Amino acid sequence: MKTISHVGEAKAAVRSDNAFAVDTTFVLFFLALEFGQSVTGISIDSVLMMVTLLAIAIAPYFLAIDNKPNFKLWFVGRSAIACFAMMLGWMFKQSYGVVLPDMFRFLPMTLLIVTAMLSCYIQFYGFLKLRFVK
Fold first, then answer.
1. Which residues contact 108 (CB under 8 A, 6 or more apart)?
2. Does this model's pTM top 0.90?
3. Rounded to 5 degrees, what are φ and ψ at 64?
4. Are 104 and 52 in contact (CB under 8 A)?
5. Burial level of 98, CB count in 10 A (0-12/13-18/19+)?
6. Quick one: pLDDT at residue 120?
7. Alpha helices (runs of H) in 44-106, residue ranges in sequence order
8. What is the Cα gyration radius of the chain?
């Protein structure tokens, strides 16, 4: 019986090591989409948005309490998502006014605000939910 419980614990450990924060990944995606759409050169707003993008990419790793995944794999995965979203934002910028109506320009920021609000709610719920004392 002990071997079965150890196998179950090992599977749970593997699953928790490969898991990542889905809610902050959506915030990262839409922030990178907005960054790719709005950056035109090196300016103070693009530098501040890049610092925010790096913070959103790295900070959730340090919020994990139980089993942390490998930082290198974590950062490579999140960087790939951010780079893909930046390229998508650049392509999105090229398409509105030609393929899409001009009012779609505000869609990435709107979705960023909605996902950031949901992510805050999920994070605060995780911090403040009642846990029984063991």
1. 30, 33, 34, 37, 89, 92
2. no
3. -70, 130
4. no
5. exposed
6. 87
7. 44-63, 71-95
8. 19
Here the tokens at position 92 are 């999105």
pLDDT tens digits, 68-124: 788 898 889 999 999 999 999 999 888 887 888 888 888 889 999 999 999 888 878
Yes or no: say if 86 and 32 are a contact pair by the CB < 8 Å rule: yes
In DSSP terms, which residues pair with 57 in a beta bridge? none
pLDDT of 18: 40
φ, ψ at 42 (rounded to 5°) = -85, 115
Q: What is the DSSP string of 9-23?
A: HHHHHHHHHH---HH
Tokens in use for 34? 């907005």
With contact defined as beta carbons under 8 Å apart, do 86 and 36 qualify? yes
Cα–chain center distance at 6: 32
Residues with Cβ within 8 Å of residue 68, at least 6 apart in sequence: 17, 61
Write down the residue that tokens 């996902």 correspond to.
115
